[in-house]
Amino acid sequence: MPQSRNVVAGLAAALAAAVTGFVIHVGSQSWVQSWVAERMQGREVRPSWDVRYIALVTSIEVGIGLVILYALVRGAMPFKSPVLRGLLLGVVLLAVMGRLVRQPVMNLIVGNPLSVVVVQDGISWLLWPAICVVAAVVFERLAPEQNAG
Question: Domain limits of the chain?
Answer without folding.
Answer: 1-45, 49-149
